[in-house]
Write a structure and sequence with these properties.
Alpha-Beta Plaits; 42 helices; TPR-like_helical_dom_sf; Rossmann fold; adenylate cyclase activity; 942 residues; alpha/beta
Length: 942
């Protein structure tokens, strides 16, 4: 290549290249080295001749070049490496392995050369590379656009270059035709070790650490012996991490479990130390020569995988130099001279003097908290945890596995299963090989295989290469990622994964058992261990859930397996069962309905409704929608409820499924209520009429009473108050005649509201007094305390603040306790009216909070709307616009729970200043007109 006269300036990319091990190659080839060197130079120059690179210096086997463009510099290096690797060299040992380094910086040439620190940085980048490797700095990576076709840059992290105080982020050029696997870069890192990063804390073993530390300091070969799972690896790594400063040439960890051939043990160690094979020389000789003059600690883990080969390598290392020490872990000793064998004891299960917990219990507590997302075990589980470690005899791996099981089971459940220790700990493990003790994985095998192949050792088998290729490809798509795990599942675990896709959220162990009608623990353990199902333990028992991408994958597999109909129908049946159980107490008898019990089921019921509307039974869907009747409205979801009902009607028309008239009447009635809550009054009236027609066709008197009781609602919404009152009276009288008065309770509430509206307070109070026992006898309605709410409104209209306070707070407390948020919003507004006289600022805050909640729930104020506006206007005139707006705005920032707490904290009128309770003796107390608060129906404090 002719030397370019014009050198690039500004942002310049400098390239350094040389042959790795050139001295050794020259000694090996003798007179044949010069032709190889000339051919190497020719290939590089031929490659660079078509680029903009300027050759500044060629000395021996080194090149120094400058490029005006970072992308062209990388392209030139890639082309050169491919030319070198495909050239027909005299023999394999004669192949020069060229390392290349690039760095881009701002530089100006002077007198045909560059005097810039950027040149030195480029040289250090090249010095960090290995033969066949192309490294570049972060600045080159940033400016290299576009990259060569098919090429990428692999981020190798931050490294300290020799002679520079800062750290440089290095990137490796990866492209077809280039090697990918190399030892770590040859940089001057501050800490020389490769000890595995510990993702969990080291617990206990204080005495053992001290004893082993003393042995390692005194002896050159210490072998830690113990059974599988005794904690050998973890203790060795923990000890070695504290000895890094004592070994200036590093502490190096090598996992022999990854070595599949005895001849590759030396290659595995060499790869960790950053050594490459030298042409014509055994790797063990290179290794011994490198370590002879150095002071280092080599930690050889799981040596029982290759005991004879390890013994040979250790013997050669110790004989080659006095600065090398070896800490080995194994299940059997080597029998080498000078070897000190130290057997690791199990963790203590009894507390040591002065300590609250034993090492075994402390480990289980720590790992259980980690397995449960950082949440420590509940105090109620501590006794069961002690039982667990006692049964496991302090074996660390068993304790780790027990903690893993506690992702699936509560401590009590696990303790009860420890009669079969192996069955409890290994439940669901399909891999017959023991787990790696330290719990870490690495990529050392790839490096060892490739180094061995380059040195003439055993190359990777086609099966091994296929596994490596599959391991890379599984990250290309989410489906490939999940498939990678799915293919490792046995039949029971894969079926469970598919069937769990029908659940929308966390489910209990009993729910999974109900779904499968079988004990799922074995298969569920497999899924949790493989992170395909997440377990969330609690003292009450664990729950299980799948991430959405995995659920979608499993649902697809469910359909492909032809199991979707059965699984989803079973889930619908479970949803109906769960809905029924929410209405029952532990004794199986009906309890006051709490909508909070329905909140956790909402996702599951929606999933069940979706199937009913698309592939299942619309009749079952109508039953589910009916079970959520009040929940939809109280959560501001009336529109969603209407949409589900419309979809179910469509499913009926599509399939022709026969629905009994009574069930249609119930669905139409609920639809009417939802439409009214959503402000769709025409739709409300239409479905109310449909419900009446279907109920009359069904011939169910109680059902007809419930439907007719709701006929007044659309009339009220449309402002036809007189007609609504007439309908209510007729329905109530008819229900009494038919002896189904309880089913007409809704008409009683509506009539009371209408009477309150036209100030017929005495009649309203009498009507409500008779309704109280009826309401108390109906579990699905008594939690709302509608009688108390209405009595409170009557008391407000009479000016009886004491009665209003008592009734409204009873209603509010019950409504909040049972999850009736929409109705609680009205009660908060009523309490605001009660506070307007003696707590005006609080009243304004409550008005603001109620309105904000009403807006979030998309709820209409209904018949009370004009009253709330009138009371707010009166309050505004009393305290002034500025004060009202400020307090109203503050209330708007409160959540419903905070607003309810504020309302419940309002002082009882009898305790306030000026209360009749504190009037002087003999002072007459005026009695409000009409019945007293006790005549309005006995107020029950809740």
């Amino acid at each position: 290549m002719s030397l370019r006269i014009h050198l690039p300036s500004g942002w310049v990319t400098f390239v350094f290249t040389d042959i790795e091990g050139s001295t050794r190659l020259a000694q090996l080839l003798g007179p044949e080295y010069r032709p190889v060197l000339r051919e190497h130079r020719r290939l590089l120059r031929d490659t660079l001749a078509v680029t903009d690179g300027a050759e500044l210096l060629t000395e021996g086997d080194s090149f120094f070049l400058a490029f005006p463009d970072a992308a062209k510099a990388l392209t030139a290096c890639l082309t050169a490496q491919r030319a070198l690797s495909t050239h027909d060299w005299p023999n394999e040992d004669a192949t020069p392995r060229v390392r290349m380094g690039l760095h881009t910086g701002y530089a100006e040439p002077r007198d045909g050369e560059y005097a810039s620190p950027e040149v030195h940085r480029a040289a250090r980048v090249a010095a960090a590379a290995h033969g066949g490797q192309v490294l570049c700095s972060a600045s080159t990576a940033r400016l290299a656009d576009p990259l060569p076709s098919g090429a990428t840059l692999l981020d190798l992290g931050l490294h300290r270059l020799r002679g520079f105080d800062d750290r440089e982020r290095l990137f490796q050029l990866v492209a077809p035709g280039l090697e990918r696997q190399f030892p770590r870069p040859r940089t001057a890192d501050a800490v020389a070790h490769n000890l595995p990063t510990q993702v969990t804390s080291f617990v206990g073993r204080r005495a053992e650490r001290a004893e082993l530390d003393l042995l390692v300091r005194r002896h050159r070969l210490v072998t830690v012996l113990g059974a599988g799972g005794a904690g050998k690896t973890r203790l060795a790594v923990e000890l070695a991490s504290g000895l890094v400063e004592a070994y200036p040439d590093g502490v190096w960890f090598v996992d022999i479990a990854t070595v599949t051939d005895p001849g590759l043990v030396a290659f595995a160690i060499a790869a960790v130390l950053g050594l490459r094979p030298e042409p014509g020389r055994p790797m063990l000789d290179t290794l011994v020569e490198y370590t002879a003059a150095r002071r280092m600690l080599v930690v050889l883990d799981t040596c029982d995988a290759q005991p004879a080969a390890c013994a040979e390598v250790i013997s050669r290392l110790l004989a080659g130099g006095g600065g090398v020490r070896v800490l080995a872990t194994s299940r059997e000793s080597f029998g080498l001279p000078g070897e000190v064998v130290w057997r690791i004891p199990p963790l203590s299960v009894d507390p040591q003097p002065g300590r609250a917990e034993s090492d075994a219990v402390a480990l289980l507590l720590d790992r259980t908290a980690a397995a449960r997302g950082g949440r420590p075990p509940d105090w109620a589980e501590v006794g069961d945890l002690h039982r667990v470690v006692q049964r496991l005899d302090g074996l660390p791996l068993a304790i780790e596995l027990a903690a893993a099981r506690l992702r699936v089971l509560s401590a009590g459940q696990l303790a009860a299963r420890l009669d079969d220790v192996l069955g409890a700990l290994d439940a669901g493990r399909v891999d017959p090989t023991p787990p790696v003790e330290h719990g870490w994985t690495g990529n050392q095998q790839d490096t060892v295989d490739l180094v061995a192949a380059a040195a003439g050792g055993t190359p990777p088998s086609p099966a091994h290469r296929a596994v490596q290729r599959s391991a890379v490809e599984r990250h290309l798509t989410m489906q490939a990622t999940v498939t990678w795990s799915y293919r490792t599942l046995g039949p029971r675990a894969s079926r469970l994964l598919r069937w769990l896709a029908v659940f929308a959220g966390p489910v209990s162990l009993s729910s999974v058992e109900w779904l499968l009608d079988d004990d799922p623990l074995d298969a569920l353990s497999v899924l949790v261990d493989k992170s395909m199902v997440l377990a969330e333990p609690s003292p009450a028992g664990s729950t299980y859930r799948m991430l959405d991408p995995i659920r979608a994958y499993a649902a697809r597999r469910l359909a492909e397996a032809g199991e979707e109909q059965g699984a989803r129908d079973r889930h619908v049946a479970w949803s109906s069962y769960a809905l029924e159980q929410a209405h029952l107490g532990p004794d199986g008898r009906p309890v006051t309905l709490s909508l909070y019990a329905l909140d956790p089921l909402a996702g599951e019921l929606r999933a069940a409704l979706r199937w009913c509307a698309t592939g299942g039974s619309a009749r079952a869907g109508l039953r589910l929608a009916g079970g959520l009747d009040q929940w939809w409205r109280e959560r501001g979801l009336s529109r969603e409820a209407r949409l589900w009902l419309f979809r179910l009607y469509g499913r009926i028309a599509e399939t022709g499924e026969r629905i009994p008239e009574a069930e249609l009447a119930a669905a139409y009635h609920l639809h009417s209520l939802h439409a009214g809550a959503d402000g769709e009054f025409a739709e409300e009236l239409r479905f109310s009429q449909r419900a009446e027609a279907a109920a009359r066709q069904a011939g169910d008197v109680g059902l007809l009473a419930r439907v007719l009781a709701g006929r007044a609602a659309p009339l009220i919404d449309m402002g036809q108050f007189a007609e609504a009152e007439r309908v209510c009276r007729e329905v109530i009288d008819w229900a009494h005649e038919q002896e189904v008065a309880g089913d007409a309770l809704f008409a009683v509430y509506l009539l009371a509201e209408l009477l309150w509206r036209r100030d017929a307070l005495d009649e309203a109070a009498e009507l409500l007094g008779g309704a109280r026992p009826v309401e108390a006898a109906r579990p699905v309605e008594r939690g709302r305390r509608s009688v108390d709410m209405l009595l409170g409104m009557v008391a407000l209209a009479r000016g009886d603040v004491v009665a209003a306070h008592e009734h409204l707070l009873v209603a509010l407390r019950s409504r909040m306790s049972h999850g009736y948020h929409g109705r609680a919003c009205d009660t908060v507004s009523a309490v605001a009216v009660r506070c307007a006289t003696d707590h005006p600022v609080t009243a304004a805050r409550l008005f603001g909070a109620a309105q904000a909640t009403r807006a979030r729930l998309r709820a209409t104020p209904g018949i009370y709307g004009p009253y709330w506006l009138e009371q707010q206007s009166t309050l505004r005139r009393r305290i002034g616009d500025a004060a009202f707006d400020a307090a109203y705005g503050e209330g708007g920032l409160l959540g419903l729970e905070e607003a309810a707490a504020l309302a419940l904290s309002v002082e009882h009128p009898d305790l306030g200043e000026g209360s009749v309770r504190f009037r002087p003796s003999g002072t007459a107390t005026p009695r409000p007109a009409g019945p007293t608060r006790w005549e309005l129906g006995r107020c029950e404090w809740a």
